[in-house]
Automatic annotation (TrEMBL):
Domain of life from the UniProt record: Bacteria
Name assigned to this protein: Pyridoxamine 5'-phosphate oxidase family protein
Domain General stress protein FMN-binding split barrel intervals: 13-158
Record's signal peptide: none
Matching InterPro entries: Split_barrel_FMN-bd, Stress-Dev_Protein, YdaG_split_barrel_FMN-bd
Record Pfam families: Pyrid_ox_like
């Protein structure tokens, strides 16, 4: 970020939706008090609802679900280096096997993980309700920013701009 960076608070879920939908894959961390990294796994967000809840499909009998049942506090780390976009979400996870919710969120990409399709008995949905979120977002794409960094080095003036701030949900 440059001297032009802005630190601010964004009300609502629009920024959260924008970043999650652009990045999709996050590192999903459970067992926050005791974890050593072994409880952090890549997962793909399926949807962000109008309330800011983030949904994931998962196997009902997975270690991730067992960890959430023991302690529902989670952290999600979204990163898109090519766009210079980053997001961390702290929240509480809950697990459901509600068939209506599975039907609502189902998409063909999910079928890779569930051999019997949306009727697979091992499907569950993790809902993360955010308690806080923080983002970093660099203006422009990676190639433009590389050129801006080179120009900044030559001129002695930081030309890379962006913003960061808290997202209030």
């Amino acid at each position: 970020m440059s001297d032009n960076e802005t630190k601010h608070t964004i009300e609502g879920v629009d920024k959260l939706k924008e970043l999650v939908e652009a990045i999709r894959i996050c590192l999903f961390s459970t067992k926050l008090k005791t974890q050593d990294g072994a409880t952090t796994r890549p997962m793909s967000a399926v949807k962000v609802c109008d309330k800011g809840n983030i949904y994931f499909f998962n196997q009902k009998d997975s270690d991730k679900n067992k960890e959430i049942e023991e302690d529902p506090k989670v952290q999600l780390f979204f990163s898109h280096p090519a766009k210079g976009s980053y997001l961390v979400v702290n929240g509480t996870a809950s697990i459901t096997t509600d068939r209506k919710k599975i039907e609502e969120l189902w998409n063909p990409a999910v079928e890779i993980w569930f051999e019997k399709g949306k009727d697979d008995p091992n499907i569950s949905i993790i809902k993360v309700t955010p308690s806080s979120a923080y983002f970093w977002d660099t203006d422009g794409n990676q190639m433009i920013n590389i050129l801006k960094m080179a120009a900044s080095f030559v001129t002695g003036t930081n030309l890379v701009s962006g913003s960061e701030g808290e997202i209030v949900i």
